[in-house]
């Protein structure tokens, strides 16, 4: 294993603001973080990442939730509704069935709006305040819009969201709507929505808070920091592997960055970095294709389909950050069918963990890689479940048992029960 630690340098460049700056991941460009709105490198159009002159150690963190990790973030505090500090559950039934040494589920559905997107938004909306922008916008398969609507409302800033018409789970649209976002339903898929909102952002119409925005990934890094702390508290050890659903690959990139910074801080050795393992739905698996074929670039899929609407994405924008994360940690990527996703959703529910379909992809992927022998029985694994069951009530109802109509009297109910 070898990690690219190029983000680690002990001296801030002249453009840094309080030890924080932006750098292109493809070329030498570096820039000031909060002077100008930027999403991509002005020289080569590469993705940007946030860099720091110092990386904190675990003993420097205090408090709880995302802002516990303020020393690893660009600000000390943000627009917060107590995001983060989500539970890391033991799931004994699935652990037994799958046959690994240890299995825990990091349930990001327990965030305020029911998905990990809150972690990115608490930081992203804080940066938007710093930049003084008037309107926030995103394209979304649903959860990003719910989180942005909520955090934008809290910050008192106008929010515009672009959703693929008919392809967003009911709970998510309801959230965006009630929190007061202006919702545009686009006659196209998520990737088309992102193309449009990126154009709007380039024209200065709105500040873009998709995961292309490097500050969002800073907030999402805290998933990795929490996993390390909680897993250590619960088991005295470190996880060998983290299995996660992949859509735009923002989390994959964010976890990799969290671990690189822990290595730079001297908290983890390179060998201790958990193996990152991505899972996509068969109908939307461009990252899996790139990993399997050994490609450096991800081919955009124009047609995508899956019941797991949160990962119904054909053009993962963070692929240039995420592919090295999977490769350099010795990980892999795997595609699972919608049937396998629903089965995993039921299995999680039996262990008391209610998740939306995309989240269950992590457990479906673990099962598949265990069966193929790619994941060993000696491994200690964390599966990331990204969103709450109530996000997609239709999928949950379809996966569960149907209600049984009965008459409105006890005798009739007993008779129905066959007692
Ligand atoms: C956004 C989202 C994903 C995809 O995450 P990426 O970081 O874009 O790969 C997965 N699951 C759920 C529930 C999501 O909301
Ligand atoms: Zn560049």
Describe the structure.
The chain folds into two domains: 88-114 and 217-399, Rossmann fold, CATH 3.40.50; 117-214, Rossmann fold. The chain contains 13 helices and 13 strands. It has helices at residues 92-98, 117-131, 143-155, 170-178, 190-202, 214-235, 250-264, 286-293, 319-328, 338-350, 357-371, 393-399, 410-417; strands spanning 20-24, 30-31, 48-52, 88-90, 102-107, 135-139, 158-164, 182-186, 207-208, 241-245, 275-281, 332-336, 380-385. The strands form three sheets. The chain has a six-stranded mixed β-sheet, with helices on both faces. Strands 8-7-6-9 form a four-stranded parallel β-sheet. It is globular and about 80 Å long. The mean pLDDT is 96. Residues 24, 26-27, 29, 41, 43-44, 46 line the site of zinc ion.
Provide the descriptors you would attach to this structure in a database record:
binds pyridoxal-5'-phosphate, 419 residues, Rossmann fold, alpha/beta, 2 domains, six-stranded mixed sheet, binds zinc ion, 15% strand
Helix content: 25-40%
Distance between the termini: 62 Å
| Number of helical regions | 13
Return the structural class. Answer: alpha/beta
Question: Which architecture of the largest domain would the CATH scheme give at its second level?
Answer: 3-Layer(aba) Sandwich
Largest sheet: 6 strands, mixed
Radius of gyration over C-alpha positions, nearest whole angstrom = 21 Å
At the third CATH level, what is the topology name of the largest domain?
A: Rossmann fold
What is the percentage of strand-forming residues? 15-25%
Count of all domains: 2
What is the oligomeric state here?
single chain
Query: Bound small molecules, which ones?
Result: pyridoxal-5'-phosphate, zinc ion
Count the beta strands.
13
| Uncertain residue ranges | none
| Widest beta sheet: strand line-up | 4-5-13-10-11-12
Name the helix and strand elements from N-terminus to C-terminus, one letter apiece: EEEEHEHEHEHEHEHEHEHHEHHEHH
User: Given the C-alpha coordinates, what overall shape results?
Assistant: globular
């Amino acid at each position: 294993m070898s990690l690219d630690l190029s983000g680690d340098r002990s001296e801030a460049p002249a453009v840094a603001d309080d030890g924080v700056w932006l750098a292109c991941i493809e070329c030498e460009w570096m820039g000031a973080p909060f002077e100008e709105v930027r999403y991509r490198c002005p020289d080569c159009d590469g993705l940007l990442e946030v860099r720091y002159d110092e990386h904190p150690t675990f003993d420097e963190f205090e408090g709880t939730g995302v802002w516990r990790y303020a020393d690893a973030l660009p600000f000390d505090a943000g627009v917060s509704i107590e995001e983060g500090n989500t539970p890391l559950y033991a799931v004994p039934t699935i652990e037994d069935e799958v046959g690994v040494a240890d299995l825990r589920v990091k349930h990001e559905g327990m965030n305020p709006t029911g998905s990990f997107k809150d972690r990115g938004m608490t930081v992203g909306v804080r940066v938007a305040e710093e930049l003084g922008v008037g309107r926030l916008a995103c394209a979304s398969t649903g959860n990003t819009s719910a989180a942005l609507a909520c955090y934008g409302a809290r910050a008192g800033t106008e929010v515009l969201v672009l959703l693929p018409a008919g392809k967003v789970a009911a709970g998510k649209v309801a959230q965006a709507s009630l929190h007061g976002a202006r919702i545009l339903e686009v006659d196209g898929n998520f990737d088309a929505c992102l193309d449009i909102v990126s154009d709007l952002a380039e024209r200065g119409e709105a500040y873009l808070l998709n995961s292309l925005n490097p500050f969002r990934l800073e907030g999402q890094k805290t998933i990795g920091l929490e996993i390390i702390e909680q897993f250590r508290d619960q088991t005295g050890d470190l996880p060998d592997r983290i299995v996660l659903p992949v859509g735009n690959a923002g989390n994959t990139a964010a976890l990799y960055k969290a671990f690189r910074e822990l290595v730079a801080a001297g908290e983890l050795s390179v060998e201790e970095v958990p193996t990152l393992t991505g899972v996509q739905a068969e109908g939307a698996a461009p990252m899996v294709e790139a990993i399997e074929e050994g490609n450096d670039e991800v081919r955009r899929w124009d047609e995508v389909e899956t019941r797991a609407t949160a990962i119904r994405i054909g053009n993962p924008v963070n692929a240039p950050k995420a592919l090295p994360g999977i490769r350099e940690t010795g990980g892999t990527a795997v595609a699972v069918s919608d049937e396998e996703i629903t089965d995993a959703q039921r299995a999680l529910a039996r262990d008391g963990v209610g998740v939306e379909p995309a989240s269950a992809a992590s457990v479906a992927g673990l099962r598949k890689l265990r069966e193929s022998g790619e994941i060993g029985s000696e491994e200690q694994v964390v599966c990331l479940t990204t969103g709450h069951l109530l996000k997609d009530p239709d999928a949950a109802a379809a996966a569960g048992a149907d209600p049984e109509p009965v008459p409105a009297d006890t005798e009739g109910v007993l008779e129905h029960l066959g007692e």
